[in-house]
What we know:
Elements: H1 7-20, E1 24-25, H2 50-54, E2 63-71, E3 73-74, E4 77-78, E5 92-101, H3 106-120, E6 128-133, H4 144-152, E7 161-164, H5 166-169, E8 170-172, E9 177-188, E10 212-225, E11 231-244, H6 245-252, H7 265-275, H8 279-284, H9 287-304, H10 313-331, H11 339-350, H12 355-359, H13 361-403, E12 414-415, H14 417-427, H15 431-440, E13 444-445, H16 447-460, H17 474-487, E14 497-498, E15 505-509, E16 512-515, E17 518-520, E18 528-532, E19 535-536, E20 550-554, E21 567-577, E22 580-589, E23 597-602, H18 604-628, E24 634-639, E25 644-649, H19 656-671, E26 675-682, H20 683-688, E27 702-709, H21 711-715, H22 719-724, H23 726-732, E28 735-740, E29 755-764, E30 767-774, H24 775-796, H25 803-837, E31 841-843, E32 846-852, H26 858-871, E33 876-882, E34 885-890, H27 892-896, H28 901-907, E35 911-914, E36 918-922, H29 932-943
Parallel strand pairs: 1-2, 6-7, 12-13, 14-19, 32-33
Antiparallel strand pairs: 2-5, 3-4, 5-11, 6-9, 8-9, 9-10, 10-11, 15-23, 16-17, 16-18, 18-22, 20-21, 20-23, 21-22, 24-25, 25-30, 26-27, 27-28, 29-30, 31-32, 33-34, 34-36, 35-36
Helix pairs in contact: 3-4, 7-11, 9-10, 9-11, 9-13, 10-13, 11-13, 13-14, 14-16, 18-19, 25-26
The chain binds zinc ion (ZN) (2 copies).
Residues 194, 196, 201, 203, 207, 209, 211 line the site of one zinc ion.
Amino acid sequence: MTKKLTGNEIRQTFIDFFVEHKHTFVPSMSLVPGGDATLLFTNSGMVQFKDVFLGTDKRPYTRAVNSQKVMRVAGKHNDLDDVGRDDSHHTFFEMLGNWSFGDYYKKEAIAWSWQLLTDVWGLPKDKLYATCFEDDKGNIPRDDEAADIWKEQPGFDPSHVLFFGRKENFWQMAEFGPCGPCSEIHIDLGEERDNLRGTEHVCGVNGECTRYLELWNNVFIQYNLFEDGRLEPLPARHVDTGMGFERIVSVLQGVDSNYKTDLFKGVLDVLSSLTGVSREEMYKDFTPYRVIADHVRSAAFLIADGVVPGNMGRNYVTRMIIRRAARFGTKVGLHEPFLAKVAEPVIEEYGSFYPELVKSRGAILDNLTREEIRFARTIESGTAHLENLLSELRAENDRAERSEPSGESRRSAVLDGHRAFDLYATYGLPFEISRDIAREQGLDVDEEGFKVAREEHSLASGGGKAMGKLGGEDAEFFAGILKALQKNKKLGEHGVEYDPYTSPTATGEVLALIVNGQSVDSASFGDQVQVILPRTGFYIESGGQVDDTGYIRAERSASEVEAGGWEIEVTSMRRASAGVIVHVGEVISGQPKVGDVAVAEVDLQRRHDIMRNHTATHLMHAALHKVLGEHARQAGSLVAPDRLRFDFNHPEAMTPEQIERVERLVNEAIAADMEVVPKLKPREDAIAEGAMALFGEKYGETVRTITITLPSDVAALEVNEIIAHPAAVMEKLPKYSYELCGGTHLERTSDVGAFIIVSEGSAAAGVRRIEAVTGRGAYDLIARRFKLLKQTAAALKTSIEEVPFKVESLQDEVADLKKELANLRTETALSSFASHLNNIQTVKDISVMALEIPNSNVDTLRTLADKFREKYPKNGVALLTSGGMVIAVVTEDLVKRGLKAGDLIASIGGRGGGRPNLAQGSLPDPALMNDAMSKVAKVMEEKLK
Ligand SMILES: [Zn+2]
Ligand SMILES: [Zn+2]
């Protein structure tokens, strides 16, 4: 090694090396694995290629190289316990890998790892070891193939091949499925790096000490393992390799800790300047610094991938590591928020390779500081409480030891998990931090008990003080809230009352507030909050009609913030579980509290726009049946405030006339001011009466129907009859439209205002899609189009009515001008041609012309060819080109002597054909006309008899 590579350079040389060997560089996938619900975080480089190995996905490449972001804080791979305590563990790290998907195999993979480690990176050959697989159970063949390949590597010591069994050298994706032997590369760092030096221990590869370090694992996927234990060779064999990035950097930079590489230099510099502690002093008590460095880096990457601090699942992990870093900060004297300052050099160091860090810079710094401040509010009381519990525990322990000094009693020095959970639920003290503190005092916390308490709590959690659970199913959480509210008689047996039809405002007590997946007593300004009220008039998306939006306010006005006023902006709605309807939004002023009386108000203007589009959708559905036929049934729809979208069955594109007719029919129905009447009735009856129902939709026993009827038909009926039986009469009226529908509608069609079809196109095979606008949207469209038309008329210097004629006459004018231009060009060409005609070369008594005529078209070239034949009816040969075109002429007498026009084109390298006396073709390169004369002379010589 001539010079030490930086971390970024090491990553890049790895990628470049494999790209040179025809690998495709594949960027790291997010820490949040898409489409894999079984995994909390991406925990290996394999995650994004899993489907390729299982054969359920194909990629456009068969060789890949990547550096994958990885988190190991949960599940099978949980390194959190070791992070900080040693020099090699991280919650977040990078995994370098090269991959073959049924492409190369052991020979290439091993040779390349050897080349990269020794030639490119210059590691000493005599210090490297390779392990290969030998089954300790004796069922799977020994991997001699890999061992033999290793022994062939230049400079590799053959005695450095070592065999290990299933635990170390066999890889399985899962209990069954793809699997195969591994070959690991280890390095001997020398005696001085042996942490057990001088003691009795297994000192060697896969031994007990730190002298031998595994660098790189090459996995050769070659078998498929079946449930019955059968092992079959895979048709396509793969290579999957993994090399911990931080580890190889530490080896190449010659340092004894991942945290002493340049990757963490900026972070430690900042910590040094914040604490005033020198690097040497830091190394003496390195643990808190390692924890902070590791956790801040993880948090930055998590937040960049959208995982902000919270109370459930992944979000909990972000919260926990930030809080843990903050607590270790207090151990080295950092009490003010400092994590954002430590995150800056992380963004600096990694930003060029992971641009998401730079893009999310604001969010990273902001979330870190906010979470630190939140934690600071409770940490003191939380840890004080914990200290009390721990000293009680110690006292109990001492008493027990005195009375029974057998040593057995050490086991009681474990804090009850339920108590640890209370600390979290009350003070936001994560389990991991309680355990840290306990362990620092030689005690521990019962993790199982904590988990049990958390489970129990999430089941029992209702309103009031209860906390949400930390992970798992959302619906269960809300079902728990519902149960508690029903128990307190705050909600009836059907849960939240839902009525978006009669009143857009509803008043009631705030029953629950949920922030960060956790039920809270009150929310603060800026919180993303979910609100449960006893009843709501907000429509929940269904049947294509979108959610309502609006506001929830304290019954007191929002301007009286001081007096307890507050306001929440509702942006969406959801049915969180059966009987639970949740308003989702943000607190825009004040501090809403559970128990406050609130008024929930739908944004009426927006709702009105939605209703216009919904009623118009029904009118259009009916019009489509009239114009296209009964087959034009609804296949999907969207009813939004700004537009409506309607998919229907129809085998072909609608004609412009059909579109115009549908638009006209709907507008006539609007103008007719028809009545829109909703009615609940038994499903059987509605269907029997011919109400349009959606195929594949589930309907209950009682359905809601929307009827649109013509009042003009009412006039034809006896007045007395109407007065006597108004409902019965309505039933008898011919219906313009009759549908099963749960949406909100206008009372009269005239409220739609206007209806304009914006587009008609294909949505799927046999399904067409219409987009249209109504009311204010229609006006906006008309106004916009009209303005364009006015501008066009002004540009054309004419009136709007005259625009089409003016455009037509302009088009005629352009056509005339084009024709005139073509004539002019021909004339120009002819006159220059005339001078060439007089200036012709003679080859063996034959008049030969080879000429390039710029700016001509085929017609001009043909005219010129005719001119040539007129002047030379006998003994004449001509080759004319322009641009990429070529035309050749040979007089009849010469054709009889064996020369064809096509021969001339071929002689200069052109392509084409035609009759023997006149051929036409193309010339790939104008330069082929150089020396045309001699080429023509040559072909004449060959062909003419
Ligand atoms: Zn050792
Ligand atoms: Zn509808």
